[in-house]
Amino acid sequence: xxxxxxxxxxxxxxxxxxxxxxxxxxxxxxxxxxxxxxxxxxxxxxxxxxxxxxxxxxxxxxxxxxxxxxxxxxxxxxxxxxxxxxxxxxxxxxx
Length: 95
Known about the structure:
transcription
């Protein structure tokens, strides 16, 4: 997992909104673009950052590019965060 790329990707509100929209299932680039008031070039940049972090997958279906969440990366990130914020026990052990 590319931890730095993941945190960079989720640091931006536009990219978080893309991820939130994809929670409901796969969507084409056009369907996602309807939810934003930004240029297609800007949105393409956000898609590329999400792809570089491996948070989304894309598939060409005819003339359309369809995006979906890569849930395995989210599971890996959750494990990293849980490990990072584990509470230490009194004798140095982690709980």
